[in-house]
């Protein structure tokens, strides 16, 4: 069944596509653009049924944690540090969240965490390999 996706694990950034075009579209400040380029982000996911804790560890010790329950509105934070409210849904085994200016999906594909963000037709794809 679709509801039993196993997201729990630790994933390290492996590669991305369309980073520059995407961050320009969402208006990320240039110092954050450089910080995020090929950034070895480690994403740690703890899933308990429909409850998720999604933490991103950035080099240099900064972390961002979003805690949410599928189907319920939650307080979230963007990669640029903006706070907003979103309701995460599950569609076709993917987690889907509408961020203020982009749509974000996450799925486990062949043991990797594949995240896709779409803004005005620009598609940014980030792949992370499982390390724990």
From TrEMBL:
* Molecular function GO labels: lipid binding
Keywords of the record, alphabetical order, are: Cytoplasm, Lipid-binding, Transport
Q: Which Pfam families match?
A: Lipocalin_7 (PF14651)
**Cellular component aspect of the GO annotation:** cytoplasm
Provide the protein's localization: Cytoplasm
Boundaries of each Cytosolic fatty-acid binding proteins domain copy? 9-26
Does this entry carry the keyword Signal? no
**Classification via Gene3D superfamilies:** 2.40.128.20
What family does this belong to?
Belongs to the calycin superfamily. Fatty-acid binding protein (FABP) family.
In Swiss-Prot or TrEMBL terms, this protein is called FABP6 protein
**What species was this sequence derived from?**
Nicator chloris
Name the gene: Fabp6
